[in-house]
């Protein structure tokens, strides 16, 4: 017989799709990385996507059945363990050397018994249903923890950990269960509070990041010091435990502890999360999603494009988020008044997730969804009035994300006037309005000489110019909707608005208590900040960094009103703007920059940029560049904050460069699309700049910037 050549072996890579459109057109090999393939990223082009809808399988009934079986097995094991403990107390010790088949939670067991358990692990318990999901499946009901969120003072209930060899139970729930790997930073202080003598959570293993899901066994077992299975590390990244045992908790419990210790204090409003956490499964998923993203990005990251792309594309940090979004969408179909608080809380946390590590489009989508939920919620009878304040603060954040020439930037409702009674809400409303007025003036002023009676307004011309220069999809969409002012802004209208806002600022400042005012730090010479390239600055301190941030908003609002008045009113002096700018520097330099101000658009870097565009001198920008940014970066900042400070550094350098040319930049916009990931902002792109020639005419221009130029 004729010998036939051996059939070539097929690759073990399963391709479910055919690559992105760019790679298909160019006949290149595509690695199909989401959201953008690495081939397009390396070439610096925008990935065209995959143009295929993904259908998700409904596993609600399977997850519910798996949850029921898991609960029955868990309680059966607890009852069996209680009976075994009672027998040990009453029966004499036996010479039988065979160990029991189940782990014991008794801390008085001998080291030999614990070592035997470590060598012979018990039979795996059924997996909790939150773990039973795949890339094509969605979670319907996550595992209910045996304790209340943010309240771990009750009696400790033994928690069944996730065994590394328990994939069979996951198959019963619907699909294979990938184990989620999250790198736990050393700064995350995860402790377990409970009865006296409770143990601290042991160090969680730091895992390298991967675009795909990595496998990390999140086991729960006791290991005695000195045993063969004990950790070889000298000390835990979370500190030494109280006893001689270390405990490795499951992923979900670690996320809950991280949310309790690090995420919840950073939320702008104190909300009673325990009630919502016990009542709602999709709200619990939103809590886990926010904790997972915060845990992933709470450590310093390498600020290069490829590394950031891999981190942001890591599916492990988006699994809980996708689960929460799917659960929220399912609940919105049959939303009732009694669960509107749960829906609003979940939508709020998902919006915070997008504010921290997501896109502008995600923020707008969740904010609009929260508006729809809030319209059906009776806040007067609500048991969580803090949700109202958090919702209004998110609306003010959305204002800053919209183009100043759009009238839809200020969407009024019946709650606008009552918000003036709250100091935090009032100052955000004032700042958003005065900044919008200043930005609109900066954009329209360069078109004033082109305005003719009966012709297009300056706002319409500015919107058309943005479409031609930046080419963003959102700009074209807004222009087609005619979302621009029909009337051109006049100096008289600007002065009238400044007068109204000045009176509101006077009222706001009079309502402050003495302990809410800045206190000058004059105790030592170290309280004075000086340098060769900038003027000496006096630092100020506050009792709370949140109050310091609110006061910086007040000063920036004052600076904006005074600048606009100095342009059109000869009696107003621009020197007051410089004086307020030095106070802003003193407050910011006196703040603890290691505490992240999260879940808001109005962060320190944005406020400093706004203040720098209002100053006539270069002292403000020079102080930020030569002192503040080196101080913050030297002390170590997390990955998300690192991108913000990198953007601030580039903005200050641009302002100084144009200032030396005799051009004062008053406002600028990036060309990034609304669905762009944060890591894409450091790539090369266009920016539109508006300004004036130091009060002698106006200009507009566009630049190509690269916040991280390649070597």
From TrEMBL:
<feature type="domain" description="Zn(2)-C6 fungal-type">
    <location>
        <begin position="19"/>
        <end position="48"/>
    </location>
</feature>
<feature type="region of interest" description="Disordered">
    <location>
        <begin position="161"/>
        <end position="180"/>
    </location>
</feature>
<dbReference type="GO" id="GO:0000976">
    <property type="term" value="F:transcription cis-regulatory region binding"/>
</dbReference>
<dbReference type="InterPro" id="IPR036864">
    <property type="entry name" value="Zn2-C6_fun-type_DNA-bd_sf"/>
</dbReference>
<feature type="compositionally biased region" description="Low complexity">
    <location>
        <begin position="225"/>
        <end position="239"/>
    </location>
</feature>
<feature type="region of interest" description="Disordered">
    <location>
        <begin position="219"/>
        <end position="239"/>
    </location>
</feature>
<keyword id="KW-0539">Nucleus</keyword>
<dbReference type="InterPro" id="IPR001138">
    <property type="entry name" value="Zn2Cys6_DnaBD"/>
</dbReference>
<dbReference type="GO" id="GO:0005634">
    <property type="term" value="C:nucleus"/>
</dbReference>
<dbReference type="GO" id="GO:0008270">
    <property type="term" value="F:zinc ion binding"/>
</dbReference>
<dbReference type="Pfam" id="PF00172">
    <property type="entry name" value="Zn_clus"/>
</dbReference>
<protein>
    <recommendedName>
        <fullName>Zn(2)-C6 fungal-type domain-containing protein</fullName>
    </recommendedName>
</protein>
<dbReference type="GO" id="GO:0045944">
    <property type="term" value="P:positive regulation of transcription by RNA polymerase II"/>
</dbReference>
<dbReference type="GO" id="GO:0000981">
    <property type="term" value="F:DNA-binding transcription factor activity, RNA polymerase II-specific"/>
</dbReference>
<feature type="region of interest" description="Disordered">
    <location>
        <begin position="77"/>
        <end position="129"/>
    </location>
</feature>
